[in-house]
Amino acid sequence: MEFSHVSVLLQETIEQLHIRPDGIYVDGTLGGGGHSYEICKRLSEKGRLIGIDQDADAIAAAGERLKEFGERVTIVRSNYCNMRRELAALGIDHVDGIVLDLGVSSYQLDAADRGFTYRVDAPLDMRMDQRQTKTARDIVNGYTEHELYRVIRDYGEEKFAANIAKHIAAAREKKPIETTGELTEIIRGAIPAKIRAVGGHPAKRTFQAIRIELNRELEVLKNSLDDMIDLLNPGGRICVITFHSLEDRIVKTIFKTNENPCTCPSNFPVCVCGKKPKGRSPIRKPIAPGEEELVYNKRSKSAKLRVFERS
Ligand SMILES: C[S@@+](CC[C@H](N)C(=O)[O-])C[C@H]1O[C@@H](n2cnc3c(N)ncnc32)[C@H](O)[C@@H]1O
Predict the structure, then answer these.
(1) Rounded to the nearest whole angstrom, what is the distance from the C-alpha of residue 28 to the centroid of ligand 1?
(2) What CATH topology corresponds to 10-107+217-310?
(3) CATH class of 130-214
(4) Residues 89, 208: Cα–Cα separation, whole Å
């Protein structure tokens, strides 16, 4: 299957990165290489782009797309939480810009065998990194009903989490749940018909929740952002595109804390904790896609771009 993915907030991200032709840039979620391609176009022979992705298909597709830039590009198959270590292995300790375009690519969503979506009947997989052994099948069949409830409630923000978990637990008593199609039917049966008729797809939130849990998406993001800010040279920027409020809240909080890290009580006349701001966000509000982008790329609907500049 051809790797197809329309990059979200592409021009806005490139503008915000303030690319220096001889700078070093990292794309921590390389995907099809859409953002990386635009960065590379702006680099001189001295500039460098390090592209990281944990998905073998993305690595292959981006490698092909970026090959015209030759030595300027280095592609690494890894989790972006290992960014510091991967850069150190390349002899790099600081960079001029970082991009994270979170979540899954359209290619991953549409692939017949990856099991990310309720739209395609496939084995329950959902691994972004195919080297990982745990799959969505292990979560659906192996978590207790209460654990499933917690995942679906917290990561899907699903009102019917308890009922969905109950239906899954009952169904797997008869036989293990193997496919996205089976899971979708079970979820459908757990959501009242009246709600099903008006809301979005009944399985959307549960699939999102299982994917986030399996790939530890929020944990990885939370544990990586501070380190990425530390990797930036003065004036360097990190641009993060999120697709739901759970991710966005993490980015917003971490950027704010780095802008104002002081933990002294508000009635202290001077700061005694000694924590200094590491930089600031150059934009007052997150950037959302414009009307034109929303027309040609529906997937961009919930996207938000946040930016932090290192001082
Ligand atoms: C939305 S796509 C990126 C698309 C890319 N910006 C483009 O324009 O072509 C997200 C990509 O990030 C990868 N990804 C998500 N979380 C990751 C992580 N923690 N470490 C490495 N790659 C990750 C996914 O495998 C996927 O290929």
Answers:
(1) 7
(2) Rossmann fold (3.40.50)
(3) mainly alpha
(4) 34
